[in-house]
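Quick illustration, no need to memorize.
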Amino acid sequence: MTPKHRTRIALSLSAAAALLVVAAPGRAQDSPGRQMFTRYCGSCHGPDGKGDGMLAGMLTQRPADLTQIAKNNGGTFPAQKVMRYIDGTTGVRAHGSSEMPVWGEVFKEELADSPAQKAEVRTKILEIVGYIASIQQK
């Protein structure tokens, strides 16, 4: 099996894992997506994604309540759009420039390294997106 095929398989498996997180919201509380969300996003967005993290009060712009994304998008969770915010493709002023968002060393620079690291980063992003999807309020 070639490295290209391994990368495709890894990306497919990571997408499937993210979908399982979304499909099983009861497991979201102990999911890798929640753990990564807490680590990379929780200090600003809060442990439950409501924009009330411990650093929120120190920021000039209040962090978004991520539990309202689907509600603010006509009831549909825009997973691709959220992925672009996380990987820095779509800028969010509070996150910093797209060249170096606050998580740049985790989600941006690794994309340029090897196919295996690219798959690992994509898996992290999909896990976080899956967790955010699981906390959407109706």
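DSSP finds six helices and no strands in the chain.
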